[in-house]
Amino acid sequence: MMSDNTHYDLIVIGSGAGGATVAQALADTGKRILILERGEHLPREADNWNPSAVFIDGKYRTDEKWLDKDNKEFTPNTHYWVGGNTTFYGGVLMRFREGDFEERKHSDGVSPAWPISYDELSSWYDKAETLWRVRGEAGTDPCEPPRNKPYDHAPVGHEPEVARLDEHLKENLGWKPFPLPLGVMRDDADPVRSACVRCQFCGGYPCLVKAKSDARTIAIDPLMEQENVTILTGRFVERLEVEDCGDMIKEVICTNADGEEEAYSADLVVLAAGAANTAAILLRSTCEGHPNGLANGSDQVGRNYMFHTMTAIVSMTAHTVDADFPKTLGINDFYWGDPDGSYEYPMGHVQTLEYMKGETIEGQIKEMVPSGLIPNFLSRNIAKRMLSFLVLSEDLPLQENRIRWDGKQIHLEYTYNNLEGHKRLVAKMDNALDNFADEKHKIWDHHYQVSSLLPIYGTAHQCGTARMGNDPATSVVNKDCRAHEVSNLFITDTSVFCSSAAVNPTLTLVANALRVSEVIRGRLMGGALDAPLTHQEQIAETPPKQGRKKRFGIF
């Protein structure tokens, strides 16, 4: 029996965007909410904006080791701090397209439909954009989904070099580039009082002046003053224990910073530890009734891992690039295919990347080149002449791409897929830049560029390991993100994504977490929880002559 001081109305596991959004949305209920976070509060210090500390030393990145499909160790690009990975993200907050929620053919297969439509999420996108103070311009994105209202804030303006590129793409190529929707508190109309100072330290860095809309700034900081919300840091969740191996979580078992085991209980539990770690927690939570892990009667927990097919393009020109904050331009002309009809399948999205310092370059390639091999003066001069881009294409959910837990560490078994459209889009960008630079260099002609497919350690856009669906035989949670087999468990991070789309996942994550929070609110305020059948019971009750499985567990 748990004592009163260890029992809560709601436990949230993880303080990133998925968990913090739920806690923030439900704080006004007055119910006792406990947030368990494995990391600590990020110190506000000079090293926050020190490129050597951030990119070369990896001061804030985990030193945890995962294993790939060949059992080779690697360090994931993951940060365990209060506020999660959004503290270090680039601030791009885009909506998925209408078609991203529907079944869509790709060159390598099919992207499945979600159990919810864009229309069901549309109003929650509105709320998410307002809450996260997104700056953008409606009507400029050529494949933008329908909107109920314009953005609340004007977009961040282009730097001179990006403005020149914008004009080149429009005038010379007929493309329709648009201002990237950003969660950056930059007011170009009032730069003196603007929170954002265009500091060159955005993507990859924590924001010292808290001008970036991240889970820490938007959700966690306001919760620190809420008497009914408790945040416990340094708590690594080991497992979830169910009562009599049934369908209700009895205790959340975690280890504190001193290595001591602690147990907490709650009426409802929200799991939002990130797609990889959410799967790992469920897989660790075994018992007689759940031998393959909690909520895993379908054998879908950990499967369908996606993280986007991404290529970074670095274009180096003879002249110096005048852009302290270049991450303001997006390209979606080829999102659903090539407009010239030469390719009928989706290709993806392109966006400019943040400013990269010399140390950033060194840090990004240190996996291949020993640190210190590139002299600082060379890397810094290269950085001054760079304009970088990120090409994102949809990564299809495959059963064999999965997270496993071996009892000691995470295995990420992954094989790249759906590359044809991605390669075409990279080539489109390469050709578009050929005629952009107008000044020759002594060594190269006009511009020189390199591109590299992001290795599997680039886990920032991870999703899909506990996907939602109506059929418990092929999914982990229902459309309201409640586990089919566990009455009091909700999952609100990117684990529940059925597909990855081809744009950054954070806004969709926040919008969906807000949507699910209303379902949880109903349960907290007295609504009854349906007790779902286990997967085995559900199969047993299916009349053989019907040839189909009974559906259950949908609120």
Question: How would you summarize what this structure contains?
Answer:
It contains eleven helices and 19 strands.
Structure description:
Residues 367-372, 440-446 and 530-555 have low confidence and may be disordered. This protein has helices at 17-26, 51-56, 118-131, 160-173, 215-223, 275-284, 358-365, 376-383, 419-434, 506-524, 535-540; strands at residues 7-13, 33-36, 66-67, 73-74, 104-106, 109-111, 178-179, 229-232, 236-242, 249-255, 261-271, 309-317, 329-331, 349-352, 386-393, 402-405, 410-413, 447-453, 489-491. The chain is built from eleven helices and 19 strands. Strands 1, 2, 8, 9, 10, 11 and 19 form a seven-stranded mixed beta sheet that branches. Strands 7-13-14-15-12-18 form a six-stranded antiparallel beta sheet, covered by helices on one side. The longest helix is centred in the C-terminal third of the chain and has 19 residues, at 506-524.
Helix and strand arrangement:
Elements (H helix, E strand, L loop, with lengths): L6 E7 L3 H10 L6 E4 L14 H6 L9 E2 L5 E2 L29 E3 L2 E3 L6 H14 L28 H14 L4 E2 L35 H9 L5 E4 L3 E7 L6 E7 L5 E11 L3 H10 L24 E9 L11 E3 L17 E4 L5 H8 L10 H8 L2 E8 L8 E4 L4 E4 L5 H16 L12 E7 L35 E3 L14 H19 L10 H6 L15
Parallel strand pairs: 1-2, 1-11, 2-8, 11-19
Antiparallel strand pairs: 3-4, 5-6, 7-13, 9-10, 10-11, 12-15, 12-18, 13-14, 14-15, 16-17
Helix pairs in contact: 1-5, 1-10, 3-10, 7-8
